[in-house]
Every structure is written in C-alpha cells, then in structure tokens.
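Table S2 (text version). Query chain:
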Amino acid sequence: MTSEALQDRLTDLVLTNPDVVTIYPIRPTRIQIASRVLSAAAAQPGRRPKAVLSTTAAGTAVEVSVGVTGKRPAPAVCRELHDSIHAELTNAHAAPPLSITVKISSIG
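Corresponding structure-token output:
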C-alpha cells in the first residue's frame, strides 16, 4: 500500500467514527489561509483535510486533529481513534516505532 493510499485509509477510518464530525488541517493557520486563497484563485475545490502520515527511517508517525460530537467523553474518543489507527498501521506493516497523535480541536 502506498503512503498516500494509507493516508487516505486512515482519514476514512477516522471519519467513519460516529463521534467524529470533521478533521481539521494540521498546518499552521497562515499556510492554511494561503492554500485556500490559491485554491479559490485557481477555481479548484478545496481538498478535505487528512490525517497526516509521515514515514522515515525513525519510524511512522500519524497526527490527526478532529472535531467531535460531545456525546461521549473526548478522552474515550481519542483512545478509540488511537487504537483504530494503531491497528490499521500494524495491518499495513508500517515501519516501527509508531507515533500516533490524536488531538480534539472542537467538541459539540
């Protein structure tokens, strides 16, 4: 599986969680704004934010920032997402060690 395909798979995995409302961009705000301006100027629809995947000789890292419904405690949702991502990386034979960061950016 290519890293882009794995990134898409992880993004879909996160979005299928019933407590997740959206994924937020990880990039700094100024880069995000510039990207949206360029997208609008080029008349291309903006891309959906994705889980960020990076693979180096030092291992595999995943970072995702999400908005959740608030129906369940945020720490429980974080643990569930972490465990799902870990299982997917393990199934994809991602290079260890694995580093997974799940950030709740909004609730409700």
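Notes on Table S2: The radius of gyration is 15 Å. Helices lie at 3-15, 29-41, 74-91.
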